[in-house]
Design brief:
The structure is a homodimer. Chain A is an alpha+beta fold. Helices cover about 30% and strands about 20% of the residues of chain A. In chain A, strand 4 and strand 5 form a beta hairpin. Chains A and B meet through strand 11, helix 6, helix 9, strand 12 and strand 13 of A and strand 11, helix 6, helix 9, strand 12 and strand 13 of B.
């Protein structure tokens, strides 16, 4: 490490202070429209907004269509700035979750309303303020310090919220344009204890629908004792995926999963965990399966899950209707720990159901994501934490894993590049994916201050 | 029995032949409008249509409002005709099921379209053609034979399709007006073997919702391994209501249920059962729980059931959404055999769940009906069968029970009157409660011919 190379950030910070009001205006403009991959809404506008941010920085931009097989899908934006070594790859996405249910928003989802220092908009926490804070940091750096101390490459996709279905071949085909020494992911934040979190891994994902069928029409339930009931069928099949305590069990599950490493467990044990505040976030009195205290923290990071995201069968309106439903559908997301793959999980699920006579239940594969992991002792993790400390943070949480998922393994496993989630704008009540998504403007400013320092410190490694 | 009193039905049958085309027109008029108790649609018109049929017969009519507590509910119509002994009580209802889903109808649900000798309309099988066939039989009798040979009393309600919630106190308060020697219920038919069915009992009903709650908002499923999932909670609770084979089990269930009597079993054994045709009605290859052949017939009549009529939780739209749902609701109808009551079943269900730690699951009681039973060797059953044989039917099926439910126990247990279901217009593909509900016009004519003879033979007992 060469202390001489570290620039003075006085002018940089002053620039941010002076221009922060107009930065908030830019944030509001950037959040003013939906970009919904699943619904094919606002995709061209989403790309245009990203171009409008990158072009003034002097970025070399390459808009990559996702190909003829999905010509209405949002393209991937690749960009490059600067020329020095090393190379840092940034990952962001310009799509957002749908805003529904609209009636639960206290201000219109694309209005960017500010209340009590919080900025409310769909997508602001996930991932628009993250993306913009990096843009604004580069602008401040170029204006107040000079050329970037490293080369920034940028991968900005438009389908993250629907599972990045077209990203793998694009990363594969453009591996040269994406190659880097390090990578900073989107979407970290401060958690319930309100200190910066640095996250070193994501769980994988397998998303499936289970379909069961009964009579060929919703039938009078007077024959309920003899007609096969598809809702009962799924209930019975699902119940074999939990043991008596409620733990997720499946034939062969343990054989394909890595336990956390010693370093991971050590990092996990060093993490603070305020159970009551975490529970309060969800209005809960306790966790599932009677999990207590730090057990819950470790489970959320290190255990695979079988989650029911939706169960739909028969009549759901007011009052009573006496039918045997004709069909039943369960939506499930399985979160995967390192070494588990969507393909292997899908095979195990099929075999588990077949072995118990449930071969009539159809499994519809809605896609998957691999788990991704960077060692907690990577220099990248150290730099990420040091920058927060330079900014005056007394505590920094280093999480070996988190329960969420994303296409991070395309970078960690696919390109062999260490990846970390840091410098994000989220806080405990950001409610990404829920109504009243928000960030705190103070965190937005911290993130802008963070990234210039991060570039400098990483270049100095 | 006094053969001398039996009138000659030559002129009666001729009258029906001559006027049958206009009777079909009357059926179309009677089916032209919805009368939906649950949705408060067409109630006044429903009463007016019934009055328009009964008044020309010279009936003494008493329209009974259901009281101040439910002043928007459809009234009950009580009527009386004739003066001779004995007294026969007829039960019908003027409400129908909602027509949805509309897109599955091949002709508009209230058009009364005739195709291949079948008449299609919502409510025609359940219960408008039944009611009208009795009206037309009385008209034919009065026109061609003379005064009715017995007193007919009529109970016509407008809430059968929503579980007759206001009927019990009305039957209680008007017991004198309803007292009778015998009672003929609505809604019998011909079944898959296409011969008349005489049904001697109805199962009871308990309808409930089970509610489970998780996080106070649909939460990101990255925390799916620690957040309580209400869909999983209901799956786990429900799975305790079935044994390994799939039989309905509940603590104390067997203690409150009567087994079928010896006479019931003998009657059941005498019933023909065409398993393949029954399965074909539902597009099925087999029954639930591996039931085979006559096992299914006996189960449908004599076993209590726990049916899932609806399961609603989380996301049910296209594609994937990764959430832990905030709530889950299951709708269940329990069908009750003799001696089981809705109150006792509700108590057992609560205790069964509590004993397994599911005291967090809320049970919402949506109402119930008692089982009802008339002995298969009642003279009423004999008369019902004899009339069919007089009409040339070679085979008549006498079913000790059926899987459906209704307020029949108000008459059997409440008034101590034997009740039978006979003389109905339904056939195997009537699809009561489903789109394309229909009757065959030949069955409608048979029913009109049936009721005049039934009055005469019952009077002659």
């Amino acid at each position: 490490m060469n202390q001489d190379n570290t620039p003075n950030f006085g002018a940089y910070d002053e620039y941010i202070e002076q221009h922060f009001d107009s930065m908030v205006v830019e944030l509001r403009e950037f959040c003013a429209k939906p970009t919904l991959a699943g619904q094919h809404i606002g995709l061209a506008e989403g790309v245009a907004a990203v171009m409008g941010l990158l072009e003034p920085l002097g970025a070399r931009i390459h808009v990559v269509p996702v190909g003829e097989v999905a010509d209405d899908a949002p393209p991937v934006v690749l960009a490059e700035l600067g020329a020095s070594q090393p190379t840092l790859l940034l990952y962001n996405h310009y799509d957002v979750q749908p805003p529904e249910p609209l009636e639960l928003w206290d201000s219109p989802p694309y209005a960017g309303d500010v209340r009590d220092g919080k900025f409310y908009a769909r997508g602001v926490a996930d991932d628009r303020a993250d993306l913009l804070s990096r843009v604004l940091a580069i602008r401040a750096y170029l204006t107040t310090i000079g050329e970037l101390p490293l080369r920034v490459r940028w991968l900005i996709e438009g389908e993250e919220e629907v599972g990045s279905p077209h990203l793998p071949p694009i990363v594969d085909e453009h591996a040269g344009e994406l190659q880097a020494d390090w990578c900073a992911w989107e979407s970290s934040g401060r958690g319930t204890i309100d200190v910066p979190h640095i996250i070193c891994g994501l769980k994988g994902l397998l998303y499936v629908e289970l379909h069961a069928t009964g009579p060929n029409h919703d039938a009078h339930s007077g024959n309920g004792s003899i007609l096969p009931n598809p809702a009962w069928r799924l209930v019975t099949a699902l119940s074999t995926l939990r043991d008596e305590r409620g733990n997720f069990v499946m034939d062969g599950l343990d054989d394909i999963a890595d336990k956390p490493t010693e370093a991971d467990m050590k990092a996990a044990e060093a993490m603070p965990f305020d159970e009551q505040r975490e529970l309060a976030l969800y209005g809960l009195k306790g966790w599932q399966r009677g999990l207590k205290g730090r057990e819950a923290l470790y489970s959320a990071m290190f255990e695979p899950t079988a989650n029911i995201a939706g169960f739909t069968s028969g009549y759901g309106g007011p009052g009573s209707k006496t039918i045997v439903p004709s069909k039943a559908v369960v939506k499930m997301d399985f979160r995967l720990v390192p070494r588990q793959t969507p393909e292997a999980m899908l095979g195990l699920l099929r075999a588990h159901l077949d072995a118990r006579g449930f071969d009539d239940i159809e499994i519809v594969d809605l896609g998957g994501l691999y788990p991704a992991k960077t060692p907690v002792d990577s220099p990248l993790v150290q730099v990420s934490a040091d920058v927060w400390r330079d900014l005056g943070e007394k505590e920094v949480i280093i999480a070996p894993m988190t329960g969420g998922s994303g296409p991070m393994s395309l970078i960690t496993s696919g390109l062999g590049v260490p990846v970390v989630m840091t410098g994000g704008v989220g806080y405990a009540e950001s409610r990404a994916h829920s109504p009243n998504e928000s960030i705190r403007l103070a965190d937005f400013k911290s993130a802008i201050r963070y990234w210039g320092r991060f570039f400098a410190k990483l270049a100095d490694l």
